[in-house]
Each structure stands twice: as C-alpha cells, then as structure tokens.
Specification:
nine-stranded mixed beta sheet, Nucleoside Triphosphate Pyrophosphohydrolase, about 150 residues, globular
C-alpha cells in the first residue's frame, strides 16, 4: 500500500445549515450523529434524481423534522473523516446549503435516533468538532449580524 492509498478518497455529501429567525435573533439547528452522538448539521449522500439543494432539504426533513427552502447555491463546504460500516475510511466533502426553516414537525423518520437543539450561530460553533464547519457557522453568524445592524440603521 502506498502512502497516498492510506488516505481516504474524498466523496461528496450535501448538508443543510438550517436557520430560523426569532425575536431574539437568528438560530441554527444542530443534530447529533447516530453513532458517535457528536453535534452536526443534517447531511447525506447524493440522491439520484435530486439536485444538491433538494438533497439538503430532504436530509433536513429526515434527520431533524424541519421543512424549509434551500438557497440555490452552496454557502460553503467542510470536510470531515468518516468511518464506514465496512471499516474503511472516507473523507466526505460536504457542500452546505442555507435552509430557511418554515415548519418543524414532531414526527419524522429519524426522530428516535437523534437529538436536536436550536442555538445562535456562535453557540453552535462552540459545539462543533469539525473546524471547517465551525468556520461556516461563524461566517453565517457574522453575516446575519451585519444584516441586522444595517436593517436597524436604515
């Protein structure tokens, strides 16, 4: 095995940075992963016949019970290491779409397998173990803070 073979090959996933506006300001949704119970955003593998942003919406529904509309273009991406069921490693590159949440359902496909929490983007960033995803959450937090300030000034 060569040294290059020791590193997992990159694979594509799509994720949903779900957000909602509240009187106290914007909040983002974190969920736990099924196996390790780490905090994460909803994400998953490509689905045949669905555009990437629609995959993000579908994962948000299945994993968190939220219904919303994803922006057309990714907000950013992050990379993480994943141990596959067969014991091999993968390095998913997750294209992250902003999903504005319109409804939250109490019953959804993976409700018994995950916990979820709504936090400010800055609080959410502190709970995340993946540095690239943490940076995306901080970027989103700065973006919405700037938007709020200019809205109040205008």
């Amino acid at each position: 095995m060569s040294e290059i073979d020791a590193y997992p090959k990159p694979v594509q996933q799509y994720g949903a940075l779900c957000f909602r506006n509240t009187p106290k300001g914007p909040q983002v949704l974190l969920i736990t992963t099924r196996e390790t119970r780490r905090w994460m955003i909803p994400k998953g593998w490509p689905i045949t016949g669905l555009k990437p942003r629609k995959v993000a919406e579908q994962e948000a529904w299945e994993e968190a019970g939220v219904i919303g509309k994803a922006k057309k273009k990714p907000f950013g991406e992050f990379v993480y290491d994943k141990l596959m069921q067969d014991g091999s490693g993968a390095r998913p590159v997750v294209a992250v779409f902003l999903v504005e949440v319109h409804r939250c359902r109490r019953r959804f496909p993976e409700m018994a397998e995950r916990d979820s929490v709504w936090l400010t983007p800055f609080e959410a960033a502190r709970r995340i173990d993946e540095p690239d995803l943490e940076r995306l959450l901080l970027k989103f937090g700065r973006m919405v803070e700037r938007a709020r300030r200019t809205t109040f000034i205008a």
